[in-house]
Specification:
Layout lengths: L1 E4 L5 H17 L20 E8 L2 E10 L4 E9 L8 H15 L4 E7 L3 H9 L3 E3 L11 E7 L1
Parallel strand pairs: 4-5
Antiparallel strand pairs: 1-2, 2-3, 3-4, 5-7, 6-7
């Protein structure tokens, strides 16, 4: 897999985020379920990155990292197309996001995922993340699971 940065408003990024949002809506259809957004300015000007992983020229995975303080960064918008899951693409994107977070000066990574995303929870646990109290805009989101990892 080849991983590169993409602008958040590029057609490729928008397609990947659209596919992620569709899947989240299927998994969390109830009223009040939150699907938190990522804004371009949150990752612009050295504050983060949006990555896309390609296999044979086809975008198959994505993820973002954004600084949320002097020493912390947040993983956002992780997604792998269903037809290529289980091949290590999410782990590859996550590894690159962790590398970028370190370059940005982050000493801690945090993230939010949903309680119904068992495969994501397993990936993050295998990657050294541990559950923490819900934080920030996820605090009042009962379906959210928040995790952190020291870098």
């Amino acid at each position: 897999m080849y991983i590169c940065r993409e602008e958040l408003d590029s057609p490729i990024a928008m397609a990947m985020i659209g596919a992620l949002d569709e899947e989240l809506l299927e998994r969390y259809p109830e009223p009040g379920a939150n699907h938190f957004e990522l804004e371009a300015e949150e990752i612009d000007a050295g504050g983060g990155a949006f990555l896309v992983g390609y296999v044979d020229g086809r975008p198959v995975a994505c993820g973002a990292v954004r600084l949320i303080g002097e020493a912390a960064a947040e993983i956002k918008r992780m997604y792998v197309r269903p037809d290529v899951r289980g091949r290590g693409f999410a782990r590859a994107v996550l590894t690159e996001l962790e590398r970028i977070a370190r370059q940005l000066g982050a000493q801690r990574l945090v993230l939010e995922t949903g309680e119904r995303q068992c495969e994501a929870l397993a990936l993050y646990q295998r990657s050294g993340f541990a559950r923490i109290d819900r934080f920030g805009r996820y605090r009042d989101s009962p379906l959210s699971v928040c995790m952190a990892k020291e870098l």
